[in-house]
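Risk register update: the risk of archive-format incompatibility is retired. Evidence:
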Amino acid sequence: MIEKLTPPGVSFAGVGSPGASVSSGVGVNGPGGDNSEVSCAGCSNPINDRFYLRAVELKWHASCLRCVICQKSLDDAGTCFAREGRIFCKDDYHR
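Archived output:
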């Protein structure tokens, strides 16, 4: 599952590995957020950004969600693929 947290009313569509879904919402520090500390799965630093990504049930800074093979940023890709807890771009997932 990949979830790009965005302002209310904005949708984010894409496809992923079988069973993956994409949804939208607001980051923890956005309007109505609870300001609880959230750590990034990529760098382990707190996520203080207004928006963040959620993939494979983990939260990521937009700049930290990258393919484990080619290091391509997946922030604007709209999709990511997961196998054994590792994140891939479409091309590397299908290799």
